Each structure stands twice: as C-alpha cells, then as structure tokens.
Amino acid sequence: MRGAPITLATPVRFADPLPERADVVVIGGGVIGVMTAWHLAEAGARVVLCEKGRVAGEQSSRNWGWIRQQGRDFGELPIMMESLRQWQALSEEIGPELGFTQQGVLYLARSEAEMAGFEGWLAEAKGFGVDSRMLSRAEVASRIEGAAAPWIGGLFTPSDARAEPWGAVPLLAEGARRRGAQISEHCAVRSLDLAAGRVAGVVTERGRIACDQVVLAGGAWSALFARAHGVSFPQLSVRATVMATAPMPEIFAGNAVDDRFAFRRRADGGYTLAPGGSHDFHLGPDAFRHFGRYLPMLQKDFRSTTFHASAPRGFPDGWGTPRRWGEGPSPFEAMRVLDPAPSVPLMSRVLADFAAAFPALGRPKLVAAWAGMIDTLPDIVPVVDRVAALPGLILATGMCGHGFGIGPGIGRVVADLALNRPPAHDLSRFRLSRFTDGSKLTPGPSL
Predict the structure, then answer these.
(1) Which residues contact 338 (CB under 8 A, 6 or more apart)?
(2) Which of 194, 329, 376, 435 has a Cα at 20 to 30 A from 72?
C-alpha cells in the first residue's frame, strides 16, 4: 500500500555482493545508517551497509515523517539545523518523490503550564537563530480550520518540515549507492570479528568482511548486539502506534501535536494521526536491569505509558531472546523486521479525540495502521560516540524518536568520527561514558 511502512514482505531492493574488505561496515539500514554510508561514500571511503531485513523496515518508515528543530534538546539543535539544510539539498537532488515540504511544526497548548513550557524552550532556542515563535489563541484558530478544541495558544516553527518516511529512506539509500556505498538487505551481521582487543571485521550470515571501523546503527537492536560484546548501555524501546486516514479536507497544511494527538498532511491527501504522547512499554530483562535509570522518566510519564507483562517473542528485550549466540544464526535473523501490532485502545482514543477537535469532519476513515519500536535512553538523547573499550566500534543509537529528521546531520557526524575528522559539533552530550562516569543525567525537553 502506498504510504505504509516497509515490511519483510517488501521485495529486496538492495542486494550488492559483499566484498572481502571495506574501510567501514555500517550495521543497520535505517536513516542513521543510510546517511552515514552516504557521507562516507561521498568522502571516498569503501563502505558496506548490512541490513538484517529491509532498508527502513523498522522505525525509519514507521515514524511521523517530521523534520523539526522545534522542541529539540539543545545538544541536538545545531546538528538538527545542519540536517534541515541537508534535507533541502537532498530534495533538490532527489526531487518530489522525497516528499520534502516546509509547512512548519505547531505545538498546541490546552493549559498555561504547557504554554510556559513552550516559552521556556523558546527563550533559550532564540540564541541558536531558529525562527520559532509563540502563537496566541486567535493565531492558532486562524491557522487550523474548523477546530473546536480549547487550544489557548502554541509554539510554531515555520521552517520545520516533513518528508514521506516509507519512500524517503530507500531513495536516500539509492543516493548512497550512487556515491559508491555497497548495500545488502537480508544480510544480518552476527558479530564483530576482534583481534588484539579491537575491531578487525564483522561476521555476517554470508561471510566475513574485514574492516577497521564498524558503525552500529541498529536502532532497537543496538543494545542487544553491543552487550554480546561486553558493551552495556541502558537502551530500551517503546511501541508507538500510527494511523493513516483516507483523503480528507485540509485542516492544516503543516504538522501539529497537542497532549492527545498528532496530525500532519500526507502526500496522498489523507492525514497521519498518532497519540500525542502515549505509548506502550513491554517488560523484559533489560527493563528490570535498567529500572533505576528510567525511574525519573517513569515518574514523569507514568500516566502516558501502558505497561505489558512481556515483550513479544523474538523482540530485542523478549524473555526468550538469546543474549549470547555462537557462530550460527543470531536473533537478528530470527526477527528480520520488528513489525509490532498497533494498539487498538490508543487508536480508538486518538480517533475520538480528533473527531471531538474537528466535529465537522467526524471520525476519520482509516486506510492503514501500524506500530514501530522507538529506541530510547533515560535522558531522551542518543549515544553518538566511539566505544573506548572496543576500539574500532562507533555507536549511533538511541535516537528516541528523533532520528528521521536529524538523520542526515547525524550521518555526517558519524562519518567524520569513522574518518577521524573533527565532527564540527560538540558531541559531549551524546557520550557513552555519561552512563558510567557518575554524571547526573539531564533529560532533554519532552516537547
């Protein structure tokens, strides 16, 4: 179906043969891995990207498609601003199929407390040069057609954008390949090949690739892969539900969210709808292992989280998912694509809230619904860092639902790390050691 996530049923699109040697191997075919490969290839490096399932098969084709500066952690904001410039250039190169359009992002407030939160973020963001601004009740009403919701104002960034995620990332992968990257779907990396305590290559289900640098951009699977090599960090995943409506009248050309639902115009004339902040969390071994790290977040978001007794079979934090495996098949081959079922209760709630906000439209007719697993960390910012304990391994994971928009910028930063070039941004906020050096974790804005 046009405008729906990529799944294991999607035909293989990238099947390049594996070389015996590369400069860098990228593990993971989401937007972070693809754009890392793009920038490495553009710099002349021999790069191979291995994806266990399909390029963009997981969260990179299941997200809202937003490309936003608004509400970003201030450690991320400079990279995000670079990323937006890259999206603009990518749109010029690839064309309208990318679905890139700058119609702005609007955060809507139902309370003075929410407005105060928006104002607090904006006060610091102004120093970065973003074009964000506060909107009054009347200004919100003038932008959104036929709304009956009691929104008292909002925060709006006109330059923020979106693209169509199910189409964009495969197109970006084709661009990386044109630059010389080799990409192979249905090719799981089972393990790192180590020599004298550092990376000497990777072992895939199709054989070994010698290399000195490996980028682990495996999304929800990254912690499982890393822990098998003695590298532990507190990554967990939440299930996020998304829906697509049939074509309907335009109520707002941009992207908007309040505390109940998010909506944005789609290229097919419908709207993408999602819960504004609600999600599902499946309990597994890592959830109990990292409970203390996540306690501040749980106390803050407890009411917006639905807890489930166990993760589905084969999921990264499933009770039966192996934490160690030998040279044979790995958990990454047993579960090629994470394709969780959407939450029916959340869908029903969003549809009811949307209908109440826009009574003239009524309850939207759905043409598709899906879910994705968002990999997250306790402070809501990613890890982008070299692993000191395992030279040659670079982590780029835990994008916390922010990965699609910031992907081009993070890809450039990670490529610089792999090439031993200065990354041009302060990455201290994203260091791996923050979980072990006694630092107090400072959560990013939950806007």
Answers:
(1) 58, 220, 315, 316, 372, 373
(2) 435
Q: Taking the model in full, what pTM does it have?
A: 0.97
CA gap 312, 330 in Å, rounded = 17
Domain ranges (residues) in the chain: 24-435
Tokens 């191979």 appear where?
A: 48
- Count Cα neighbours of 421 within 13 Å in the Cβ-side half-sphere: 12
CA dist 142 and 150 (Å) reads: 14
- Provide the percentage of residues in the chain whose pLDDT is more than 90: 90
Residue 250 falls in which region: left (phi positive, over 0), alpha (psi -120 to 50) or beta? beta
Q: How far is CA 246 from the centre of its chain?
A: 25
**Of 295, 296, 298, 330, the residue nearest 316 (C-alpha):** 330
Please choose, from the candidates 4, 26, 10, 18, the residue with its C-alpha nearest in 3D space to the C-alpha of residue 411: 26
β pairing state of 366-376 and 24-27: unpaired
Which of the four pLDDT bands, split at 50, 70 and 90, describes residue 4?
confident
Region 73-81: mean pLDDT is: 98
Quote the tokens at residue 271: 């709207």
Given a contact cutoff of 8 angstroms between Cβ atoms, the answer to whether 264 and 255 are in contact is yes
Over the stretch 239-251, which tens digit does the pLDDT of each residue have?
999 999 999 999 9
Q: In which element (H, E) is residue 183 found? A: strand 182-184
Contact 294, 400 (CB under 8 A): no
Q: How many CA atoms lie within 13 A of 360 on its CB side?
A: 10
Confidence of residue 1 (pLDDT cuts 50, 70, 90): very low
Tokens in use for 21? 């040697």
**Could you identify the residue written with the tokens 């030279």?**
391
pLDDT in tens, 316-332: 999 999 999 987 899 99
What 8-state DSSP symbol labels residue 285? H
